[in-house]
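Intended use. Records like the one below are meant for learning the mapping from a protein sequence to its folded structure. Do not use them to infer anything beyond what is encoded.
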Amino acid sequence: MELSVLTGIMIPFIGTMLGSACVFFMTKKMNTLIQKLLLGFASGVMVAASVWSLLIPSLDLSASLGKFAFIPAVIGFLLGMMFLLLLDHFIPHMHLDQKIEGKKSSLKKSTMLVLAVTLHNIPEGMAVGVVFAGMMIGNQEITFMSAIALALGIAIQNFPEGAIISMPLRSEGISKKKAFTYGTLSGIVEPIASLITILLSQFIIPVLPYLLSFAAGAMVYVVIEELIPEASIGKHSNIATIGFAIGFVIMMILDVSLG
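Structure written out for the chain above:
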């Protein structure tokens, strides 16, 4: 496998690691306005990446179906949403600032927080892997730069996500080093998922449009279920809206200019 591809699939993980490292430079609990801005920013990046890097290529790859070219995109998108819905239903899950009660109290808050984010990072890793796999098999609809654009977009989204994990953990009394480790480990599944997806690329070719839209559905689910509700709690939710607009525009520019 080319070094450039291996480097590309590591970019999102680096974003998580750098975001988690913020815990070493911030001594107090993350400011609420900053957290809302970061959540909105991450939401905008993920929605834009889902459209330009995943759904549009899925539609382009299905162009031979004519007026029914939307079918793979629709099926894959809905399956991606359902997959994350099932994960949330069967696996212990919590929002970033939600207290653990009842049956979930047997697990530490920090463990559940990292678990929830880690699970949602898997589809993002698959998304990067699918795009790089499409590029490696010579698909003209997917270029190396468009794959890098998606990886950069997810890395940008992962930066505030890493900070949002490590900072609350620090405020709960966990050491800076351990909070950084938890935040970083939540992102390690992304390059692993990317690598597995690429290694299985020979089986991916016939269903590439479905997989691209599947990843899009999974990412949009995370935005709707996790990021936007967290950003809308309490006052100053308009800060998150501004962050969303900034993130969306930056990712759109990256994908169009690089892709």
